[in-house]
Design a protein that fits this description.
By secondary structure, this protein is an alpha+beta fold. Helices cover 25% and strands 42% of the residues. The chain has a domain at 27-115 and 125-130: Alpha-D-Glucose-1,6-Bisphosphate, Chain A, domain 4.
Length: 165
């Protein structure tokens, strides 16, 4: 399986997901950089993502929605804070209302993505940090851990498809 571990750390207000892929760092970077590839895995299989905006530069913004099995849309936003191709990405992440405006009551999460070469494979670490333990617990209760595992589980097929192209 792609996902090696997922760890909730209430003391550090963090959640870490580690996955490894049979692809080089540059190739794995593309699944973040290209919004059409990002859409193929960002949401869990039953909640696919659609990115309406994807400015992949420091200070850039992204807006997206995930569509549930019953057609319900859950909106989100990113504010890109650091981009160091092809190994490091940081962004603030949050929920959005129907107009795409941040839902302040849900708080903001900060994500740090690190890609490291391990032979001819790539290890991807996604570290999410939260504003409070309450926010971390709410996100876990909402299914964040399982959703991230399912989302990352879609990456192998995407990488294999593009390596044959």
């Amino acid at each position: 399986m792609t996902v090696i571990s997922s760890t909730k750390n209430p003391e550090a207000l963090s959640f870490t997901l580690i996955a490894e892929f049979d692809a080089g760092v540059e190739r794995v970077w593309q699944i973040w950089e290209d919004p059409r590839q990002l859409e193929r895995w960002w949401g869990p299989p039953t909640w696919p993502a659609t990115f309406e905006k994807h400015e992949f530069t420091p200070g850039g913004e992204a807006s997206y929605y995930m569509t549930g099995p019953d057609g319900e849309k859950a909106r989100g936003w990113w504010r890109i804070t650091d981009v160091q191709p092809p190994t490091h990405l940081e962004f603030d992440d949050g929920f959005a209302d129907d107009d795409g405006a941040p839902v302040e009551a849900m708080g903001t999460t900060h994500a740090t993505v690190t890609l490291e070469e391990i032979g001819d494979r790539t290890r991807m670490t996604i570290l999410s940090t939260f504003e409070s333990e309450d926010q971390l617990n709410k996100m876990v209760e909402m299914g964040m851990e399982e959703g991230m595992k399912e989302a990352a589980g879609q990456i192998d097929a995407l990488l294999a498809e593009h390596s044959r192209a």
